[in-house]
Design goal:
This protein has seven helices and three strands, in the order ααβββααααα. It has 221 residues and is mostly helical. It has a domain of 152 residues. It has a three-stranded mixed β-sheet with strand order 1-3-2. Helix 1 runs antiparallel to helix 7, helix 4 packs across helix 6 and helix 6 packs antiparallel against helix 7. It is elongated. The mean pLDDT is 93.
């Protein structure tokens, strides 16, 4: 029963989150904004209004591969969002610009998340070894179990800190898109749908990490 509640249900939630973001994104990708401003132009406008002039805006391949790299000061947008003028493109581009603004303003949760990236990446690399070790040796022994608990504790903390970072970036995106006149009031629905669906994926990731953490803690009993 614990496995069903703590592991299987979060997996289902995660699959639903992925389905929701892809379907919502594709739906709003075909709705063109009235201002016909590209995602690149929107991101540039948001950062310029915040006094940011040292961040490169680059194009990359793939779908929903958009991200902001604070170390290189690069805002990277997938082709559809870099060149596109859809409500989805504007929402995603403005969201990533929101991260750049957070970086400039030294937003505390973003700084904390950045500081945890190295140890989180290391923990993520160890996780497959723990899981495969438990599989091949007929279950997690005390050492592997404790290591698994530590790994999921790190991942859960990271996912928890990620939530305010992502939600804040979306709030900034919607506010700035309207404030700068890039979208009209009746267009905010499509932008909000896209950003809310994306935010739910982070909630699902947190639920999954927390579920595994609690499940492993219960195995120690």
């Amino acid at each position: 029963m614990n496995f069903l509640i703590l592991i299987i249900i979060p997996i289902i939630v995660g699959l639903y989150a992925q389905y929701r973001i892809k379907s919502t994104y594709k739906r709003n990708l075909i709705i063109q904004s009235k201002g016909h401003i590209t995602g690149r132009e929107a991101a540039e406008a948001l950062m310029r209004s915040a006094g940011i002039n040292d961040v490169q805006i680059l194009e990359c391949q793939g779908e929903l591969t958009d991200h902001y790299d604070p170390n290189r000061k690069q805002l990277v947008l997938s082709k559809a969002n870099f060149r596109g003028t859809s409500l989805a493109a504007l929402g995603v581009a403005a969201h990533e610009a929101g991260h750049a603004i957070q970086h400039k303003e030294e937003y505390a949760p973003l700084n904390l998340r950045m500081s945890l990236v190295p140890i989180t990446n290391f923990a993520s690399q160890l996780l497959p070894m723990v899981m495969f070790g438990g599989f091949f040796f007929g279950g997690l022994g005390p050492t592997l179990l404790n290591l698994g608990i530590l790994i999921y504790l790190i991942l859960t903390i990271f996912q928890l800190i990620t939530l305010p970072v992502e939600f804040d970036a979306s709030v900034r995106a919607k506010k700035q898109l309207l404030g700068l006149g890039i979208i009209e009031n009746n267009e905010i629905k499509g932008v909000s749908e896209t950003l809310d669906a994306a935010a739910f994926t982070y909630v699902a990731a947190f639920i999954s990490s927390l579920g595994w953490l609690v499940y492993m803690l219960l195995q120690r009993r």
